[in-house]
Amino acid sequence: MTKPLTMFWFIPTQGDGTYIGSSEGHRPADPLYLEQVAIAVDRLGFEGVLLPTGKGCEESWIVATALATATERLKFLVALRPGVTSPAFAARQAAALDRISRGRLLLNVVVGGDAAELAGDGVFLDHDARYAQADEFLTVWRKLLSGERVDFEGEHLKAIGAELAFPPVQRPHPPLWFGGSSDAAIEIAADHTEVYLTWGEPVDQVAEKIARVRAAAAKRGKTLRFGLRLHLIVRETAAEAWAAADRLISRVSDEAIAATQAMAAKSDSVGQKRMTALHGGKRENLEIAPNLWAGLGLVRKGAGTALVGDPATVAERLREYQAVGIDTIIASGYPHLEEAFKVAELLFPNLGLGREPSGAHATIGGEFGVKAATTS
Length: 376
Fold this sequence. Notes:
single chain, alpha/beta, 8-stranded parallel β-barrel, two-stranded antiparallel ribbon, 40% helix, alkanesulfonate monooxygenase activity, Alkanesulfonate monooxygenase, monooxygenase
């Protein structure tokens, strides 16, 4: 029997809302709102959440620490940023948050692809040099979390007598996840990480990428797991789902599309270029594969595709990704609080997922149940 997919959700630390690309109905990334989302998905049965990173987001480590104390089982996939911080400092952060969360920390290695944003953080290396630096960073970081005293001198980084006083809960270290489509990125994934992430491209493109990563890992005697990052728009009927997709981008202006595509064009991220190529910045023909819709990518950098449809159909499409090697889905939907309930209530039963909330009780005759009649 095939193991059920693992489902993660998304914490919208850059803000949330009903209409993407519009200030209408916008919800700021208020700490209490983010806590509401986290508590909801913890109770609904999602295994973990991804927290994004960047200058437009609330700082992911601080938010994850706050949310870890408000949840019970939820895992937190937090950005580990080579180049933005030192490996020793990052190791201390990781060990502390792993202890605070009682072993629920996961690390998403983010090298970055926006030159302007990287410059603001003091990073001025080109694409391949950033990955070379990340290789050195992760070499030192992993040794520290494993309990080693580290002396290291590379092209980009140097450490003398580095060590970690307080170990993490997870040994040898919290799991490393990574996404990147370039050759340099795939080498990093194969050398250092446990889970490789890809954005929601058509199944054949995802299969091709997984084959490349698997081959690179096999050369090192490793086996990686694979995750898929995309959005979900699930409704009881296909017509309702497609109407919801159209509504989501109904306030998007041509100027907003042009501005987003101009910013994306400046990125040296291979993954971003692949995402942009799916829609070309145009509103026409946004269903790029069966039920795979690229509308979000018009005004959203990064993950820009969604699976759209009724529960049975979306589950079938997810199983197509599972058949080529995906075992974890990192999903999201706008607004994230309401859509988490829709995904859990409509889609989870079709995937064999779900969790009975603590304190759950049976329904009785009346508002939410039908009680069988008795006869005397």
